[in-house]
Specification:
- It is elongated, with a radius of gyration of 18 Å.
- The strands form three sheets. An eight-stranded antiparallel sheet has the order 3-4-6-5-7-2-1-8. A four-stranded antiparallel sheet has the order 12-11-14-15, with no helix packed on it. Strands 9-10-13 form a three-stranded antiparallel sheet, with no helix packed on it.
- It is mainly beta.
- It has two domains: 25-174, Cyclophilin (Beta Barrel), CATH 2.40.100; 191-259, Sandwich (Immunoglobulin-like).
- It has two helices and 15 strands.
- The two termini are 24 Å apart.
- Strand 9 and strand 10 (199-203) form a beta hairpin.
- The relative contact order is 0.22.
Amino acid sequence: MVKFYKICLLTLCLSGMVTADAQTIATFYTTLGNFKVMLTDTLTPITVDSFKARVNRKFYDTLLFHRVVHNFVIQGGDPLGTGYGGTGTTIPDEIVPTLKNVKWSLAMANEGTPNTGDCQFYFNLVNNSFLNGKYTVFGNILNNDTTVAHNIGMVPTDANDRPLTEVHMDSIRIDMPSSVPNVTHNVPSVIYPNPNNGVFSIDLPNIPTVVDIVNQTGQVVFKREARGTIQVDLRGQPSGLYWVQLRNENGTAVSGVVVP
């Protein structure tokens, strides 16, 4: 694959008055609309820092999504717009087993060999498990913002997968880091195991807490109000990333869980 240059798996470790680690939100402004991506600062710091540095220098402004493969990926970030451009620098891979090439995830492209990532990136339009372990996954489109990426993935292309009508990134901008606001309790809240076979447990605070689990299309696939430890069974759902949203009288928290 030439120049195929956490889902934020936030474990809810919220105790006392401490909030969870902040994860960066990046907004992509494109000619087909805008969408937000949560980056995995904690798990892939080198990749995220490199990406953020280029964003802050406005490196990506006006660049193309030069490669669109229906039901596979959309790729951008090449200063030449050909798939063969770069900056002349590389960063090491950060392959994290829990970060997979699931639908709507963001990953760093490379030259087809380890540790050759630079400035190009791609979004998975479907679950591409055969890419796992080969490319650094470092973000995920927020679940309510997937329409634009879907539409980019549907544009007509030529025989070289280049859009017939150019799709530009007008800009990418870094929003304030996203953190989990003030959910205070004495026992840390955790999701385990993660990833899992579709069955996992959530340790909730000892106060009534609403649990919503949402798929990548925004559909609520599990809802319950409980306290203490609950078990969730998603074996009837497709594999991929799901958002776990917790709400109680003290605030809200959002994390991700992967069902391979």
